[in-house]
Design a protein that fits this description.
The chain is built from 6 helices and 2 strands, in the order H-H-H-E-E-H-H-H. With 158 residues, the protein is mainly alpha-helical. Strands 1-2 form a two-stranded antiparallel sheet. Strand 1 and strand 2 (82-89) form a beta hairpin. Helix 3 packs across helix 5. The radius of gyration is 18 Å and the shape is globular.
């Protein structure tokens, strides 16, 4: 390992809901350092979700993240000249980052609507267990299930 390990920075909770998870999601939505634009998009999406779901938007958001988060993933491991896809459990932080990435990617893939509307739709569908973000999670789980035979290599993989 080279150099020092990076220091973990603490994130301040978002100003409207006081949620650290939502603040992290806003940072993922943000492009080119435009945080107020990202906040406006996410807050508008949450307002649309509360109208759509008829319950607290933050609860729906957290439910969507929990639903999309993968439990296992495959990592490539080279053993004896061959590469194996080894299924490994996913750490909590990485679960969130993958869920954020998949939700934002699914929203960006939709066309012809404002980003807030697309994000609201994807988050609501994810909380219901539907949509492209859930499909992505299922694909990752299916891949891990298919490669379960190589799980004994997991203790070497890092």
């Amino acid at each position: 390992m080279r150099g020092k390990k990076a220091i973990k920075r603490s994130i301040t909770p978002d100003p409207k809901y006081g949620s650290v998870l939502l603040a992290k999601f806003i940072n993922y939505v943000m492009q080119r350092g435009k945080k107020t634009v990202a906040q406006a998009i996410v807050y508008e999406a949450l307002d649309k979700i509360s109208e759509l779901a008829k319950k607290d938007a933050l609860v729906v958001f957290e439910e969507a993240i929990r639903t999309v988060s993968p439990q296992v993933e495959v990592r490539s491991k080279r053993v004896g000249g061959a590469n194996y896809q080894v299924p490994l459990p996913v750490r909590g932080e990485r679960q969130n980052s993958l869920a954020f990435r998949w939700i934002i990617g699914a929203a960006q893939a939709k066309k012809g609507q404002p980003m807030a509307q697309k994000l609201a739709t994807v988050l609501f569908e994810a909380s219901q267990g539907l949509g492209d973000a859930i499909k992505k999670r299922d694909d990752v789980h299916r891949m891990a299930e298919a490669n379960k035979a190589f799980a004994h290599f997991a203790r070497f993989a890092k």
